[in-house]
Amino acid sequence: MTIATVGTIAWAIMVICWYVIRYPFERRAKRARVETTRRGAAETMRMLVSFTGLGVLPGLFAVTGFPAFADYSPSTLQVALGMAVAILALVLFRLTHKALGKMWSVSLDLREKHKLVTSGIYRRVRHPMYTAFWSMALAQALLVPNVVAGLSGLVGFGTLFFLRVGPEEKMMESAFGEDYRLYCERTARIIPGVY
């Protein structure tokens, strides 16, 4: 088995683990009443671009080898680093879901009786879910031995992040007012002490 194959398999395992972590929260969220939503055509497009970069293109590569012109041979160190970043991403992803509990939503929604979560991993970072997704996109870039499929996660998720984080924070400020503004003052968006 080549190191390129190991990387692709590690990426697939990361995606499976991501789904296993998310599935129970997704089921529970379908039963919870949404009080406020900012979903719409723009949000659907952002989600589609992100899903294409983090799922469709690398999945297509893993199954068919397309686009073969962008293949390269990764180093063992690169794939090992990708596996470490994937583990970090999954740990962050799990901690985020655990902290949010019933407040979790796949999109820009506020639940009935929604509470501002500032405990657990949210104590220092406002958007640890985005930190987890940035980490997954970086792991994908390191694990998938194809320039197009590997980097598509950074482009796809980056598009979603930069177009969504502003509206999301405005929605939270509108819902929680001064509490959210004070929370923003003492936390970073995605990397403690950096951004």
Automatic annotation (TrEMBL):
EC class name: transferase
UniProt membrane topology term: Multi-pass membrane protein
EC annotation from Swiss-Prot or TrEMBL: 2.1.1.100
Span of the signal peptide: none
GO molecular function: protein C-terminal S-isoprenylcysteine carboxyl O-methyltransferase activity
GO annotation terms (biological process): methylation
Subcellular localization(s) per the UniProt record: Membrane
InterPro entries: ICMT_MeTrfase, Isoprenylcys_mtase, Metal_cation-efflux_comp
UniProt keywords, alphabetically: Membrane, Methyltransferase, Transferase, Transmembrane, Transmembrane helix
Gene3D superfamilies: 1.20.120.1630
Highest taxon in the source lineage: Bacteria
Protein name stated in the entry: Protein-S-isoprenylcysteine O-methyltransferase
Biological source species: Fulvimarina uroteuthidis
Transmembrane segments: 6-25, 46-70, 76-95, 133-163
Record's keyword annotation contains Phosphoprotein: no
